[in-house]
Amino acid sequence: MSSPAPIAVALDAPDLETAATWAGLVTPHVSTVKVGLELYLRYGPDVIASVRGASGVQVFLDLKLHDIPNTVAGAARAVARLRPSYLTVHAAGGAAMIRAAAEAAPQTQIAAVTVLTSISEPDLEAVGFLGPARDAVRRLAVLAVGAGARALVCSPHEVAAVRAEVGPQITLITPGVRPAGADTQDQVRVATPEEALANGADLLVIGRPITGAADPGAAAAAIAAAIRRTPAAPAR
Ligand SMILES: O=C(O)c1cc(=O)[nH]c(=O)n1[C@@H]1O[C@H](COP(=O)(O)O)[C@@H](O)[C@H]1O
């Protein structure tokens, strides 16, 4: 069987049984499963063992921490023992906050979320970021990497520009991924899995196009097969 595709399936389920079922169905095909606020706030740390199972799949803990450095350090320390491969913080929390998270969870890649993929340029302007989304994303990416983030979350629209800024060593993660013709739902800055990879993404976050399918395992397998046919991004 081919190696798992660089996809993190967002297990945004209302209950643990559903999330664990989805995890079991998709893990033969994908490298990573993502636990977000919905599951973590309902079930707490036990959710990690339930979705990890015996498969050895990587777990991405998406808590999007955003608070003063001391509080974020404490939160990152509290979840570090769960050994997530990635833990998200909001880059807009600033350099000291990102550094505090990175120091508190040294075995985990701190993934700094730049500008949410659900935000349009008018939305961004309304919260005080003037200019194109790409500029804000690049600025936040450089700040986050300088503060110790080893991964960044951005949309597929900005990933090539971010790569040019931060170089080859940083893991670039893109949500806002939809197979051609799929409903974009609340996502705004979107692209197909093939486009996101061709632009230089290392890991694609995909939720509802997989978990909303009648057969999530088959949906994950189909996307994994499609991206295996995609030419790799230029060598970096
Ligand atoms: O940090 C994230 O994972 C994230 C950042 C972002 O900018 N946009 C975004 O959609 N996400 C997450 O990625 C997942 C996307 O899910 P779908 O829209 O169902 O594919 C959700 O779990 C979001 O919480």
UniProtKB/TrEMBL annotation:
- GO BP terms: 'de novo' pyrimidine nucleobase biosynthetic process; 'de novo' UMP biosynthetic process
The entry's substrate-binding residues are 12, 34, 62-71, 117, 178, 187, 207-208
Please provide an example of a Pfam family that matches this protein in its UniProt record: OMPdecase
Q: What class of enzyme is it?
A: lyase
Q: Which domain of life is it from?
A: Bacteria
Q: In which pathway does it act?
A: Pyrimidine metabolism; UMP biosynthesis via de novo pathway; UMP from orotate: step 2/2
The yes or no answer to whether the keyword Lipid biosynthesis is present is no
GO molecular function terms attached to this record: orotidine-5'-phosphate decarboxylase activity
| Record-annotated Orotidine 5'-phosphate decarboxylase domain positions | 6-223
Query: What EC number(s) does its UniProt record assign?
Result: 4.1.1.23
Keywords carried by this UniProt record: Decarboxylase, Lyase, Pyrimidine biosynthesis
Q: What cellular component GO annotations does this protein have? A: cytosol
**Active-site annotation:** D62, K64, D67
- Asked if the keyword Lyase belongs to this entry, the reply reads yes
InterPro entries attached here? Answer: Aldolase_TIM, OMPdecase, OMPdecase_AS, OMPdecase_bac, OMPdeCOase_dom, RibuloseP-bd_barrel
Protein family per UniProt = Belongs to the OMP decarboxylase family. Type 1 subfamily.
Q: What does this protein do?
A: Catalyzes the decarboxylation of orotidine 5'-monophosphate (OMP) to uridine 5'-monophosphate (UMP).
> What is this protein's record name?
Orotidine 5'-phosphate decarboxylase
